[in-house]
Amino acid sequence: MAVPKRLICSGEELVEGGRGVRFDIDRHGVSEPCFVVRHRGVPRAFVNRCGHMPVELDWQRGEFFDSSGLYLICATHGALYAPEDGRCLQGRCNGKGLQPLAVCEIDGQILLKEAEP
């Protein structure tokens, strides 16, 4: 079971198919860029790294969705990802999707979750 770990942002900052919020996590002493967006009313978070090559997705800071607002897109080479789970839908990802992070929305706040020890 996962428990809330830390506040990422207010839920009001996430608009369906709109701008995302960037944040960092620490993994093994290394800071990794991440992001959270809203899709079908639910916050979805991922490590901000394309499945094809180690580049960040956003084409402008916080802009992760394609022009339709339906898919996440890599600004470098146009790979498309499903916002609900990060799986690669189109592009040179060779089946490698985005790495999802567990988040939840409680009392209007988006929280990063972490597995219990």
Summarize the helices and strands and which ones pair or pack:
Elements (H helix, E strand, L loop, with lengths): L1 E9 L10 E7 L2 E10 L2 E6 L24 E2 L6 E2 L6 E3 L9 E2 L1 E4 L2 E7 L2
Antiparallel strand pairs: 1-10, 2-3, 3-4, 4-8, 5-6, 6-7, 9-10
Write structural notes for this entry:
The protein has 117 residues and is mainly beta. The chain has strands spanning 2-10, 21-27, 30-39, 42-47, 72-73, 80-81, 88-90, 100-101, 103-106, 109-115. It has a single domain (2-115), classed as Rieske Iron-sulfur Protein. It contains no helices and ten strands. The strands form three sheets. Strands 2-3-4-8 form a four-stranded antiparallel beta sheet, with no helix packed on it. The chain has a three-stranded antiparallel beta sheet with strand order 1-10-9, with no helix packed on it. Strands 5-6-7 form a three-stranded antiparallel beta sheet, with no helix packed on it. A hairpin with a 6-residue loop joins strand 6 and strand 7. The mean pLDDT is 90.
Structure summary:
This protein has strands at 2-10, 21-27, 30-39, 42-47, 72-73, 80-81, 88-90, 100-101, 103-106, 109-115. By secondary structure, it is an all-beta fold.
**What is the number of strand segments?**
10
> Number of folding domains?
1
In CATH terms, the superfamily is: Rieske [2Fe-2S] iron-sulphur domain
Order of helices and strands: EEEEEEEEEE
The shape, in one word, is globular
The oligomeric status of these chains comes to single chain
If you compute it from the alpha carbons, what radius of gyration comes out, rounded to the nearest whole angstrom? 13 Å
